[in-house]
Amino acid sequence: MSERHPEPGPHFKIPQDVIDHFAKLGVDLSTFSGGHLGERLGIRVVEASPDRVVGTMPVEGNQQPYGLLHGGASAALAETLGSVGAMLHAGPGRYAVGVDLNATHHRSATSGLVTGVATAVFKGRTAATYEIAVTDDQGRRITSCRLTCMLRDS
């Protein structure tokens, strides 16, 4: 069964210089995922702003040997979403680099899509921190994460 990913909606706001930067890397905005790993995992960003980033990822193809969503895939989803928010907060001529990621796995998922919501908790000049909640199709929390990114000049 093929998973359906929502198209970026009206809240998908990314500055033109960021779009141009990722276009040079070959990342199509309609499948914006934060890079090749995100593409391999099937991550789709459906809403993005410096304050909140929402994305989805299929469970299928991202499972560990017991058929459960791999914890590393959940962590990659969380870091992708938090990094996108930090990048948008950093603004033109700057970029975000993850320096600390914490993940607590609460329950497993075996099918469907998981959704991550990254919410800014600190947006400073040199660092940004996001809390990311990853939930299953029924809205149950799968993983809780916290990501801190260092903000650097290009």
Question: Top keywords for this entry?
Answer:
single chain, 154 residues, alpha+beta, six-stranded antiparallel β-sheet, 6 strands, 23% helix, globular, disordered N terminus
Architecture overview:
With 154 residues, this protein is an alpha+beta fold. It is built from three helices and six strands, in the order ααββαββββ. The chain has a six-stranded antiparallel sheet with strand order 1-2-4-5-6-3. It is globular. Mean pLDDT is 87; it is low at 1-11.
How would you briefly describe this protein structure?
The protein is α+β, with helices and mostly antiparallel strands. The chain has helices at residues 16-24, 36-41, 71-90, and strands at 44-48, 52-58, 94-105, 113-123, 127-135, 141-153. Helix content is 23%, strand content 37%.
